Structure formats: C-alpha cells, structure tokens
C-alpha cells in the first residue's frame, strides 16, 4: 500500500533530570518514562524566569518532580498547565504543586456515555485549580500563554501558544517522532482532523511537543500529517473493496510492518478512522461503529 510523505525526526540530545535551555524563554526537562507510546519520555517545559509556568509536569515519578524542583529553586511557579489528562502528562501536577506551589491549570474530558468502560490511561481524579477553555490566557513577566482547544487525541486536549516566541506547545496533538494515537471513545478522528486544520491556519514558527524533539516548519509537517490520515482512510476503503471487513483483518493488512504488540493500538486508530468514515457516509455497518463490527462500502 502507498506510503505517505510524512517524515519523522527522532534525533534528540538530552539527559534525564537535566535542564536544557531550548529557547530564550523555554527550558525542558524530560521524564524517565520511555515507552513505545512516549518515545524517550514526557517533555516538561518551564516558561519564563523568576515568575514561571510549567507545562505538562508528567507522570507520578519522584525523580522527575525532584529534578523540576531543583530547576525551579529560587523561582515562583504561578501556573502548572496540563495539555490533557493522560497518565503520562497530568498526574505529576499535584506532586509538583506540593513541592513548589502554583495553580494547576487544565480541562476535564467530556463525560463518557453511561455504560462506556473507563479508559485506563486517563487520570480519573484530575482536579485543576483553574478550568480553562479555548482562548484562556495565563501570563507572567515577559511571557503569555494562550490555550488553543485541539480535541482529537483527547477531548480536553489544549495546545498552548507562547506569543513572545511564536511557539506552540503541541502536547500529543502534533509530535515529530510519530503520529498521535486517536483512540475512541474519548479520542475522535473528526475532531482530530479539524484540530489539525486549525493548526494549519496559525502562524507558529516552532512546535514544542509532549514527546520528542521540536518541530520546525510546522505547517508543512501538519500538512503531511493530514495527508497521512487521508492515506489511512484510502487504505481502509481499499480493504473494504477487497472484502476485508473487520478491524483485526484490516490491521493485519495495513500494519504488517508493526510488531504484534502494537496491533492493539493500531486497531484503535482504525476504529477511529472507521467512525469518521461512517459519519461521512464513506463506509457503513449494521448498528454503531465498534471494534467488533463488520464494515462495507456504501
């Protein structure tokens, strides 16, 4: 099947527990939680000097919070911002607040429909001091961060735009080392694609993602992400034309290059695409689109 023009960048110089000054206003500390889904680990960003904000304090790890506390010694933390409430991004907020102070800033995901099984990777007890929405602004001396609602990876996902450097902290919405997981029921492909289009309309000069290295020329990269998702839906349509009707069968065809342990995540992505294709009349199924449904072309 055809490959997209999407090119990942995985080179990244770093050391765990060390603070890297990555731009005049931005410092980065990487949590030691590497995995197939987090790359080297979660990127935590410190914005400003003196009175500062912290973005994505990461998972529950004493060593990471201790490293952040050392980096912030002598400074006042005014805000601890959370792009979204997956367990590798938000639970460290409470620990960091206890260590250095600051107000936890973020949003709750939309409630799941009654009877929907809970999603294990979502922090269930997230309790921000300040609930944000699209356009919310927090600021300090020399820095301004605006929340940009970008649902798709999660319903409560927000990127944060740093006006002074025309930079976007893109969380897990856009990453340069891999594509983002869009996993129903909270993840939604229609929303994800709409959020990508919104990013395309912006004039940010650099993205600082939740995992992996910075993204330069971000509009071109987002355009490639859009093309990649269109390619996946073309592959699904091809499967349907050839009588490949179930998600496990599609995954075996579309993701044969991936090791078997990654097929479960791939199946969630295919489900998200099929939900979108059913919504837009490009695929049909009997009843709601689920992981166990059988699909066909209209």
Number of domains: 2
CATH topology term of the largest domain: Metallo-beta-lactamase, Chain A
Q: What CATH first level of the largest domain would be assigned?
A: Alpha Beta
Order of helices and strands: EEEEHEHEEEEEEHEEHHHEE
Q: What would you call the structural class?
A: alpha/beta
The tally of beta strands, per DSSP, is: 15
Q: What summary fits the major beta sheet?
A: 7 strands, mixed
CATH superfamily of the largest domain: Ribonuclease Z/Hydroxyacylglutathione hydrolase-like
- Helix-residue proportion: 25-40%
Distance between the termini: 22 Å
Overall 3D form: elongated
CATH architecture of the largest domain, please? 4-Layer Sandwich
For the CA atoms, what is the radius of gyration? 19 Å
**Would you tell me the overall average pLDDT?**
95
> Number of DSSP helices?
6
Task: List the uncertain runs.
Answer: none
Structural notes for this entry:
This protein has a seven-stranded mixed β-sheet, with helices on one face. Strands 8-9-10-11-12-13 form a six-stranded mixed β-sheet, with no helix packed on it. Strands 14-15 form a two-stranded antiparallel sheet. α5 crosses α6. The mean pLDDT is 95. By secondary structure, it is of the alpha/beta class. The chain is built from six helices and 15 strands. It has two domains: 20-225, Ribonuclease Z/Hydroxyacylglutathione hydrolase-like (Metallo-beta-lactamase, Chain A), CATH 3.60.15; 229-296, Orthogonal Bundle (Arc Repressor Mutant, subunit A). The radius of gyration is 19 Å and the shape is elongated.
